[in-house]
Inverse folding.
């Protein structure tokens, strides 16, 4: 599952552009997962600040 | 917003603003929506633009210019500094803009030309009829409205979701997104008339650090690195903090700016039935520098011209909009994008040793005419040992 650390996110949209699923959507100052996320982790790599993390589903 | 326009523009950056202004000037009814509550804010840019390029569109105005630049300095991984001087002419002469004001000015110009503007309004889905994009469903303050249009221009920047919703794959490969952080710093010793670029795999892997003056003792200090080089502990933010600690330890940070800029090839096709894609959304930022302000303005203006013709003809199908796609590809911008992509592919693979050699060699050249093209031609003439490495690029010239 994708975890968005809202205290870290700077709502820049960089992650949105690399998501192969188009699952991320930036709504002004917050980022949300709107589509089918495959937990691939690509967005977490692209984030300049480290606001995204794919957490293990326990 | 009216329920119907000739042209609906999604996004109020330089691409969208130029499209809206141009179309309104040509007599079309135009609506422009921007999802943020303010145009140009927050900034996602280092704000540098070439003088000639900007002046294709408007006269420079101190109201939105932060600094005038007359040379560029490139710092090799070994610390060697090479200066590209004004006598060489070319792109390094330019401005550092104040994009909060610049972007707003562009949208005001669109409004003055007659375009309707609505901020804090987000496109949430396209309206598609018989396979043709015919408008957008938009949302403002919880209210959903359908806005119909003969042609929609997607100028929604790096996110580029609108075209994706219309069936165009706009995904940027991880290795071809430059992930960026920038500080606006004050109280630092800088050369107020020079943009400075730091290269090196320790400084900025597959990218560079930039220092762009914003006025006395103030500058945009930022970094972009390839997404494939970014991971926990070595993100752009980590690199930037390291750079700032060693170069500007006493500077004060007054603004954080972050963002992504694509350095991939442009979309394979930048039109669809009823749709034109411009600027960052079309992936037309420069693969070497990441610069995209001019590219957005250029494609935005062209898109509006082609849309106006298509609407006048009563045919907004993809073939009827193709002159836009063909037009920018055939332009100087189009060939520069193609060439610079191949050059970028070569440069990102260079070791620091080779980067050092390159910068030292370039600095010994007598460049009467500075341009990427001239530099490479000169390099090959000057340092035959580089020939082999540059062969891949030479064949492009
Ligand atoms: C860190 C950084 C530094 C840069 N430095 C430079 C530089 O020095 N020089 C240069 O030339 N370029 C630079 N660039 C690139 C430049 O910022 C962009 O190329 C330029 O802004 C592109 O303009 P645009 O109009 O295509 O998109 P943008 O300016 O990004 O505008 C797109 C707009 O669309 C809006 N939008 C998105 N989705 C929707 C929706 N669904 N509904 C409504 N509105 C929407 C967004 O909020 C945004 O305002 C830099 C980029 C970054 C990230
Ligand atoms: S890339 Fe990072 S900072 Fe930017 S919007 Fe995505 S999560 Fe937020
Ligand atoms: S983890 Fe992969 S699929 Fe999920 S939001 Fe991030 S990039 Fe998209």
């Amino acid at each position: 599952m994708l975890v968005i650390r809202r205290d870290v996110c700077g709502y820049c949209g960089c992650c949105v552009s690399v998501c192969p699923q188009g699952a991320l959507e930036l709504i002004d100052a917050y980022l949300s997962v709107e589509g089918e996320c495959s937990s691939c982790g690509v967005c977490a790599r692209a984030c300049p600040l480290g606001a995204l993390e794919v957490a293990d589903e326990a | 917003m009216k329920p119907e326009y000739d042209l609906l523009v999604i996004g109020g950056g330089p691409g969208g603003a130029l499209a809206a202004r141009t179309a309104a000037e040509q007599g079309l009814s135009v609506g422009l929506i921007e999802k943020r509550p303010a145009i140009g804010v927050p900034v996602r840019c280092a704000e540098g633009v070439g003088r000639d390029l900007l002046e294709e569109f408007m006269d420079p105005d101190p109201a939105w210019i932060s600094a005038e630049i007359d040379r560029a300095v490139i710092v090799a991984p070994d610390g060697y500094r090479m200066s590209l001087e004004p006598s060489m002419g070319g792109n390094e002469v330019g401005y550092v803009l104040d994009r909060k004001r610049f972007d707003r000015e562009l949208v005001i110009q669109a409004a003055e030309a007659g375009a309707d503007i609505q901020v804090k309004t987000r496109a949430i889905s396209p309206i598609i009829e018989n396979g043709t994009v015919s408008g957008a469903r938009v949302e403002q303050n919880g209210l959903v409205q359908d806005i119909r249009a003969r042609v929609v221009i997607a100028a929604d920047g790096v996110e580029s979701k609108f075209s994706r919703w219309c069936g165009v794959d706009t995904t940027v490969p991880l290795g071809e997104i430059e992930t960026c952080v920038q500080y606006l710093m004050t109280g630092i010793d800088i050369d107020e008339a020079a943009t400075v670029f730091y290269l090196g795999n320790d400084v900025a892997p597959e990218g560079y650090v930039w220092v762009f003056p914003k006025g006395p003792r103030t500058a945009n200090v930022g970094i972009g690195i390839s997404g494939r080089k970014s991971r926990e502990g070595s993100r752009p933010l980590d690199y930037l903090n390291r750079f700032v600690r060693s170069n500007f330890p006493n500077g004060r940070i007054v603004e954080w700016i972050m963002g992504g800029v694509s350095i991939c090839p442009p979309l394979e096709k930048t039109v669809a039935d009823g749709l034109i894609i411009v600027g960052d959304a079309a992936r037309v930022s420069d693969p070497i520098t990441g610069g995209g302000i001019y590219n957005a303005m250029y494609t935005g203006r062209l898109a509006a011209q082609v849309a106006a013709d298509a609407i006048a003809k009563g045919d907004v199908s993809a073939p009827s909009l193709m002159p836009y796609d063909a037009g920018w590809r055939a332009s100087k911008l189009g060939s520069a994008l193609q060439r610079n992509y191949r050059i970028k592919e070569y440069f990102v693979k260079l070791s620091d040793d080779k980067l050092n050699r390159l910068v030292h060699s370039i600095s010994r050249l007598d460049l009467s005419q500075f341009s990427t093209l001239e530099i490479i031609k000169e390099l090959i003439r000057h340092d035959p040992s580089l020939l082999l490495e540059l062969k891949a690029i030479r064949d492009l010239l």
